[in-house]
Each structure stands twice: as structure tokens, then as C-alpha cells.
């Protein structure tokens, strides 16, 4: 083989090595690109899972807080209702006492009727005492009842 042929063979070998290196580089870059894309997909999926997990924890803590607040408000409402009812019962008792004294006073100043009755056979015996201030009037009466025998 001549020197020209050797140079030609060396150039072809050099070109073949260059093509092989380029192809291997392309395969490596493609493999690295696929690995990077897969890693990116996994990272995005994991970030979504973390966001959902954090959102779930946040929602649970918010619901727990809302339940506690509701319980506090309910308890406060019951205590207020109890205090108001206690005050109402006291006022009602005071009103009843005032009404009793007022009625007693009004009966003694205006007058009142007091009496009793007896039913014997076919007669009604009625005894009434009517008081008007300082005056008093007593009434006794026997009323026959129309009972058929």
C-alpha cells in the first residue's frame, strides 16, 4: 500500500471514529435527556403530592379550629342564657310578690267578697261577706233548688 492509500485509510478511520463519537454522544445526550425528563416528572408529581398533603393538613387544622370556636360560642351562649334565665326567675318572683301585696292592698282599700256555701238536699245555703273599705255587709240566703224527684 502506498502512502496515499494509507493517508486515505487513516482519513476514513478518522472520519469513522468521528461519526462513532458523534453517535455515541448523541445516544448519551438522548439518554441523559430522557433521565432528566423522568426526574422532572417525578419531582413535579412529588411537589403536587406535598402541596395536597399540606392543603389537607391546613384544612384539618382549620376544621379543628372552627369546631373549637363553635364549642366556645355554644358554651358562652348557654352561660348567657342561664344568667338571663336566672335574672328572669328572680324578676318573676319579685313581680309575683309585688302582685300579691298589691292585690291584698287593693282588696282592703276597694273591697272584697268572701263567703262559703252548703248544698243540703234541695237547698243552697249561701253566706257572703262583702267588704268595701270600712263598711261590711253580710248576706245569708237559702235558695231552693228545682230538683225533680
Automatic annotation (TrEMBL):
User: In this entry, which stretches build a coiled coil?
Assistant: none
Q: Tell me which positions the record assigns to the signal sequence.
A: none
Q: Does the keyword Transferase apply?
A: no
The source's superkingdom equals Eukaryota
Keyword Repeat in the entry? The reply is yes
Q: Which InterPro entries match?
A: IQ_motif_EF-hand-BS, IQCF
**Alphabetical keyword list:** Repeat
What SMART domains has UniProt attached to this entry?
IQ
Q: Which GO terms describe its molecular function?
A: calmodulin binding
The name this protein carries in UniProt is: IQ motif containing F5
- Recorded source organism is Catagonus wagneri
